[in-house]
Amino acid sequence: MRRALGTAFEGVLAALVAAIVATVGLYAFSLVEWPAFNSSNVTRAVTTLGQVACAIAFAVAIALYRRGKLEWLAKSLTWVGLSGFVTITLGMPLAATKLYLFGVSVDQEFRTEYLTRLTDSAALRDMTYADVPPFYPAGWFWLGGRVGNLLGMDGWEVFKPFAIGFLAVTAVLAFTLWKALVRVDWAVAVSAVTTALVVAYASPEAYSAVIALLIAPALLLAWGALNRPVAAGVSGRLNGAFKPSDRMNGPLKRSGGAGEPQRSGGTGSWGWGAVVGTGLFLGLAATFYTLYLGLAAFAVTLMAVVSAISGIRAQKSWRAAIPVAVRLVVIAAISGLVALTVWLPYLADALTGTPSTSGTALHYLPEAGATLPFPMLEFSLVGALCLVGTLWLAVRAASSRRAQALGIGVVAVYLWTLLSMAATVAGTTLLSFRLEAVLIVLLGAAGVFGFLEGSKAIYQAINEPSRFKIAAVVIAAVGAMAFAQSIPQILQTEITVAYSDTDGDGVRADKRPPSAVSYYSEVDAAIGEQIGRPRDETIVLTADTSFLSYYPYFGFQGLTSHYANPLAQFDERAAAIADWAKLESPDELIAAMDGSAWAAPDAFLFRRGAEGYTLRLAEDVYPNDPNVRRYTVTFDESLFEDQRFTVTDIGPFALVTRIA
């Protein structure tokens, strides 16, 4: 437990350094008027330059660690290198825009709306609907909202710096955890590689990227918690082998036995600290991203099953499973308590019988979810790394606890994918297509270990030529830099949308004419003047739901049913809107609104159509792909020709406010 506390303290210090690096870096970028990334190569050149500087920091840190000298400097260089890499790789390509990857388009629209809601108030409230507790995990958004509130920034504006800064902090926290589990110089390498993979393949969904970055070391920690080495002779093949003599308090030593490089006993020396750490990780996942919680909990459960079976076979008694079960229960209890910090309000309402619908959050099956992912077979640098990782997992499964932990994680991803395919028969999915980034990270981490161990084995097999180490380092460095500088290209679409979307100031960063979003400030001013209540006490019915991403009004209806709160009854609301459009007089409309099962809209933000005021709404059409069908509801203008309504034309919008 003392070691766990020491790691926690080091993590706090590392997080502080990373936060400073990200803050200083993003502020420095903002001082220069950069050209748009999609119209110039200037920012890409600066990005590559910064990545090279970070790579040099990693190289120096590894050299210092291997020589056992200036550990404080090596640690500092690693922290700065990891946080600096995230900051330069994401911050510089986005330096000329205030928006994050994907701007405020597609799913980023509801994420920005959620952050705007929790920037406006620390209360746990649904992103769209009034008087409904949140269904989507609020952890990342609540933290970002508090940062935005502290800095006096709107939710849409704090999204980019918070997303980049939090990912930078997570990168150094992941290193701190890796450092406690494997050889410290290897920890630098695997942290750098997995950080690059997460930035490339998971960063557009900023809150899930945090869990993706932590999941590999967390699985090693979980395996140490659940698969406890026992006395020699009864350990069983799955207990692996490691030497307590591999302590890193001086120049690195070669590991003996099965060659398992560890620090002072590896996860085995953590004891109950590993149990607590695993529970806290699962709890964090529950507050950030439910899908990754499901996968991680599934993997941990698989670990418990494998460990229990191994123990029973080794000790010839079912009692060997009892310690494993106890630890699993404690992990579940800890994670459950953490999860309740954001889930309790929703569970309380759901369990007390608040009317709800089944929800359609799992109703999506793109082509990627209908096939098994095999990144190790792709002809690319990442494919090669994953292939090395796959081979290493197969070769070292019986002798390496690292390989066992990562291998169970990989198996969990594939089993989850198969279960998701089976779930389609029941009319739903498990969204397995979203797990490909996690699979790449797990195989990438394994690939790092495979490359390091494989290089050592080849070096020894060919009589240890003096130049071989240099060649291995050169290959690793060239491959790493080639992939790192390709990340902006991988994220090109996401970056381009960040420049082409219109931000909350009504500006497109690519200097082209803005969209209708530029009129939102006038709409906001008109609502405030005509209704006279705070935004968070005002309900707006609109199909232009990005309006709610920039201003913290509540909405009467959400973007799609897939992100709608089940307690909000999306389908019933859609039916009510369609019924209102069929009414024939203002009196009938007002009576229907007042008799609604939900708080009625205080304002309507329509588009003008040939036959009246229009709302373009959405309905779920799963199992079709795309899974959303758009349809238009038209309100006759005569429904609002009454002194109880005020109609204001603003650009392409018709704003209708109800006057009490």
Task: Provide a concise account of the structure shown.
With 660 residues, the chain is α/β, with parallel strands linked by helices.
Characterization of this structure:
- Helix 5 crosses helix 6.
- With 660 residues, the protein is α/β, with parallel strands linked by helices.
- The chain is globular, with a radius of gyration of 27 Å.
- It is built from 20 helices and seven strands.
- The N and C termini lie far apart (62 Å).
- 57% of the residues lie in helices and 6% in strands.
Give the helices and strands, then pairings.
Blueprint: H1 2-30, H2 42-67, H3 71-91, H4 108-120, H5 139-151, H6 155-181, H7 184-201, H8 206-226, H9 272-288, H10 290-315, H11 321-351, H12 381-396, H13 401-423, H14 436-461, H15 468-490, H16 492-500, H17 520-531, E1 539-542, H18 547-550, E2 554-555, H19 570-581, H20 586-594, E3 603-609, E4 612-620, E5 628-635, E6 645-650, E7 653-658
Parallel strand pairs: 1-2, 1-3
Antiparallel strand pairs: 3-4, 3-7, 4-5, 6-7
Amino- and carboxy-terminal Cα gap: 62 Å
Counting DSSP E segments of at least 2 residues, the number of strands comes to 7
> Tell me about the biggest sheet?
7 strands, mixed
Fraction of residues in β-strands? 5-15%
The H/E string reads HHHHHHHHHHHHHHHHHEHEHHEEEEE
Low-confidence stretches: 231-265
Shape estimate: globular
Give me the number of helical elements: 20
* Rg on CA atoms, Å: 27 Å
Find the structural class using helix and strand composition. Answer: alpha/beta
Proportion of residues in helical segments: 55-70%
Mean pLDDT: 92
